[in-house]
Give the backbone structure.
Amino acid sequence: GIQVEQSPPDLILQEGANSTLRCNFSDSVNNLQWFHQNPWGQLINLFYIPSGTKQNGRLSATTVATERYSLLYISSSQTTDSGVYFCAVNQAGTALIFGKGTTLSVSS
Amino acid sequence: DAMVIQNPRYQVTQFGKPVTLSCSQTLNHNVMYWYQQKSSQAPKLLFHYYDKDFNNEADTPDNFQSRRPNTSFCFLDIRSPGLGDAAMYLCATSKVKETQYFGPGTRLLVL
């Protein structure tokens, strides 16, 4: 089955710093989503981005489908950005296949 | 606001005692999913409904069952919970092949 790899596994930042999270996938996909899992466990949709670039406030994402990777950019990080960031993909089926996540810690 | 609601948020059960988790949605999506997320792991799909059609993942244990009585509600039944079933259970909904929206989850503890 398709493999999803995220890097780095852990990231520690000072408030105000910028960061880039990467997601590599091993096969073509129909769907790619980025999520933020907050400390209470809820998965919050950040982007639905099978290809192209999107921006939402301090966050933006780019997926290059032909090269099988996606990047999530966080600018001017805040303590509330802390948590786990997941990339998830699916192909012809409906199951989202998740990467192992990047754990982000932002300190003030 | 349209949303995915899960009840209860926390559930404690005894080893072997059946438990039912609930999910409801106001998004009118035709696909509903149940994912299991164990500590420090990524979510993993257990099964999903496309309208009333039930689809079980190949490696979902027989101990797990699901019911979808109508478009809005979906239930996860764990017939005989074991210690290894302690996890966060996440419900999600979507239109076909579109963005999946997740509920807040139910954290299950098995004693």
In short: The first strand of chain B starts at residue 4 and ends at 7. Chain B has a mean pLDDT of 94. DSSP finds no helices and eleven strands in chain B. The CA atoms of residues 45 and 54 of chain B lie 13 Å apart.
